[in-house]
Write a structure and sequence with these properties.
Layout (H helix, E strand, L loop, with lengths): L1 H21 L10 H15 L4 E7 L4 H12 L1 H10 E7 L7 H10 L10 E5 L5 E6 L4 E2 L2 E2 L1 H10 L2 H4 L4 H8 L13 H12 L11 E5 L2 H14 L1 H6 L12 E8 L5 H16 L3 E5 L1 H8 L4 H6 L6 E10 L20
Parallel strand pairs: 1-2
Antiparallel strand pairs: 1-3, 3-4, 5-6, 7-8, 8-10, 9-10
Helix pairs in contact: 4-6, 8-12, 9-12
This protein binds flavin mononucleotide.
């Protein structure tokens, strides 16, 4: 009986080993993984198609690593999706390898992916920054991998999903403060869309502590501008492009808050409106200067009354809106103010 049990055990071990050895050994143990990553990055940069790099970190010693490689190779849809979007490399790593120092440097470079087990996937942008580390256990199903989960992973990290070619990112990058506009009022439907984007902004406890007034009335804009010109003749004379006190915009959106106090809520709504306007081909400029004039000049009172703000509310800021008549360069931003805490 003992003999039969032993034979059965040997047969099982032999079967498992042969199934594993039948899988292609995809990890090249002879090459330096650091150089392999460098060369994949150089290749995607040189081809100029925006592809990213995915490192499938593991080794020939890891049956699940070889199984994943086999699964990917057999599925034409996954293979095509990956080929279109990534340079896909099998990065050899053996936690028990003697070249411990080298392995340590590799893990540091890839954001310590070994903590998730193997295989583990590391998505790199073209500069070699780690964009994402994917724990492969989330892609498993039964005794193999799920096609649906795998496709979802690769689609979620494809260049168009993460890069500025994403529409929202493109709109954010393209926005500028515009201070010269065409003499053409913005269509009511577009202004409505812009204002609605503002109202959709988040606010603390959803209190929506704002009032929004879209001014489409030319006499209102020209009327307060006449008052501004009388009060500031020299400033107006110095500006050769002066059309009106709202940086020459044909339309404005006044955002009012309790006592005119600046607030996170009001700021979030403003950026929503500016980005919506940008996406509709409009230019904007957030204005604080005209608010001071409106709120401190007695002669402006009839104009403010026309806005019919509730008791206790006054204008916090104004957005100039119109079709741009200039394409300003991007103002510099200090990326040194940004830090990641890991
Ligand atoms: C609260 C606030 C008030 C501003 N006030 C004025 C203003 O009165 N006049 C003006 O020309 N620009 C004003 N701006 C626009 C800023 O000068 C502009 O956003 C900044 O220089 C960055 O340029 P960018 O918007 O093109 O990226 C204001 C912006 C903010 C956020």
């Amino acid at each position: 009986m003992r003999k039969i049990a032993l034979s059965l055990l040997f047969a099982l071990v032999a079967l498992t080993a042969s199934a594993q050895s039948a899988l292609k050994r995809v990890y090249n143990e002879a090459i330096d993984p650091m150089a392999q990553i460098d060369s994949a990055l150089a290749a995607v940069r040189a081809e100029g198609k925006g592809r990213l790099v995915v490192c499938q970190v593991g080794g020939n010693w890891c049956p699940w690593c070889l199984r994943f490689a086999d699964f990917m190779e057999r599925d034409a849809e996954i293979a095509q999706l990956v080929a279109n979007n990534f340079a896909y490399i099998h990065v050899n790593y053996n936690p028990r390898s003697k070249a411990a120092q080298q392995s340590e440097a590799l893990m540091k470079r890839l954001g310590s992916p070994q903590r998730f087990g193997f295989p583990v996937f590391v998505v790199l942008d073209q500069a070699g920054n780690v964009l994402h580390i994917q724990d492969s256990s989330f892609l498993e199903e039964d005794k193999g991998y799920s096609k649906e989960k795998t496709l979802r992973f690769f689609k979620a990290w494809a260049p168009q999903a993460v890069a500025p070619s994403n529409n929202v990112m493109r709109t954010i990058e393209a926005r500028r403060s515009v201070r010269r506009y065409l003499d053409r009022p913005v269509e009511h439907a577009k202004l409505e869309q812009v204002a609605r984007a503002g109202i959709l902004a988040p606010s603390g406890m959803n209190l929506q502590p704002w009032q929004v007034r879209v001014v489409e009335n030319r006499e209102w804009i020209d009327g307060v501008t006449d008052l501004f010109k009388k009060a500031n003749p020299d400033q107006v004379k110095r500006d050769a492009h002066f059309k009106n006190m709202f940086r020459n915009a044909p339309n404005i959106i006044c955002v009012a808050t309790p006592d005119g106090q600046p607030s996170v809520d009001a700021g979030l709504m403003g950026e929503n409106m500016m980005l919506a306007a940008q996406s509709l081909g409009l230019g904007t400029c957030c204005l604080g200067g005209p608010v001071r004039f409106l709120n401190t000049t007695d002669a402006c009172k009839p104009y403010l009354d026309k806005l019919q703000l509730p008791e206790g509310y006054s204008i916090c800021y104004i957005l100039a809106v119109g079709y741009p008549d200039e394409s300003p360069e991007a103002k510099p931003r200090d990326m040194g103010k940004l830090q990641f805490v890991k």
